[in-house]
TrEMBL record:
Domain NERD per the UniProt entry, residue ranges: 129-247
Key words, A-Z: Membrane, Transmembrane, Transmembrane helix
Record protein name field: Nuclease-like protein
Protein origin, superkingdom: Bacteria
Biological classification of the source: Bacteria, Pseudomonadati, Pseudomonadota, Gammaproteobacteria, Lysobacterales
The organism of origin for this protein: Thermomonas haemolytica
Transmembrane segments: 6-28, 65-85, 97-118
InterPro entries on file: NERD
Pfam families per UniProt: NERD
Length: 297
């Protein structure tokens, strides 16, 4: 009896256990995320961008297509199981070394897929939070257009994108937007200090965003110089939606500015800087527009 039961349990387990493990892993990860003490700092309502409803419908249709494709791939194997399993002589079924090798390989494959699934789900959440941060920043920056600024978003730049570019009457700004979860609740948990070289979040420090903003601005300055035939100064900016930025000792005169997107005076206060001529601004905007790909469909 035992020799008959073991093979049947193993075969049925190969059919149903992988799906159960995947569902359990997803539920565990979701529960862990809900119990985490880190929260998004963005609390205001986000207005829809152009085509938002159409994009949501398109994404939903894409998910439905993938679901149908998965069902198509499962129909054949499930039909074969329904047909063949009743015909199996369980009392004569013996598992040889090749069968155990297949079972071991399937088990390892399931473990790898479950691990990959949880990693992809975490990366999807991070990309979603980054997208919401860019939308929040774009909503605030778009208001600068009423003040005579040109504002472009998600500008392709080789193997990376520039989150936002503001062509103000007196200067060009390359803006790197970052999404960081705040620890705990309340306004005090969303305070970040900036000393000119380092971002001082509650409980940790970062310099990478500052370095990225500087590198992006350098790339954009070189690109605009080559395209327009004249030098263009590009100011690097790090944007932190939902965070309250405190400028501490050492931040005065820093090459990289750190702002909340609601701090729009940076783009409007020309100070002693000369204004760009209308022709130069048009050349800059045209050069930036050329970075976007043409629609082929």
């Amino acid at each position: 009896m035992l020799n008959t039961l073991i093979p049947s349990v193993i075969l049925l387990g190969l059919v149903f256990v992988p799906l159960g493990i995947a569902i359990a892993a997803m539920l565990w990860q979701r529960r862990w995320e809900q119990r985490s003490d880190r929260r998004s700092p963005i609390s205001e309502r986000l207005l829809h961008q152009a085509g938002a409803q159409a994009r949501q419908k398109m994404d939903a249709l894409g998910d439905d297509m993938m679901e149908r494709l998965a069902q198509l791939m499962l129909i054949g194997p499930l039909a074969m199981l329904v047909i063949l399993l009743p015909r199996v002589r369980w009392d004569r079924l013996q598992l040889g070394w090749l069968n155990w090798l297949v079972i071991a390989g399937a088990t390892a494959w399931v473990a790898w897929l479950v691990r990959s699934f949880t990693q992809l789900r975490r990366r999807r959440r991070q990309w979603r939070e980054g997208m919401l941060a860019e939308i929040a920043a774009a909503q605030e920056l778009d208001r600068l257009q009423a003040e005579g600024c040109f504002v472009l978003h998600d500008v392709p730049a080789g193997d990376f994108n520039i989150d936002h570019v503001v062509v103000a009457p007196h200067a060009v700004f390359a803006i790197e937007t970052k999404s960081r979860r705040k620890p705990g609740k309340g306004k005090a948990s969303a305070n970040v200090g900036y000393d000119g070289t380092c971002l001082q979040f509650p409980g940790w420090k970062e310099t990478r965003p500052i370095e990225q903003a500087r590198a992006i601005a350098d790339w954009l300055a070189k690109y605009l110089r080559d395209k327009t035939g004249e030098p263009v100064v590009v100011h690097p900016v790090v944007c932190l939606p939902g965070w309250f930025v405190s400028l501490v000792k050492g931040s005065a005169g820093a090459a990289v500015r750190v702002i909340n997107p609601k701090m729009k005076s940076l783009f409007l206060d020309a100070g002693a800087a000369p204004l760009l001529t209308p022709a130069q601004r048009n050349r800059i905007v045209h050069a930036l527009s050329e970075r976007y790909p043409e629609l082929t469909e």
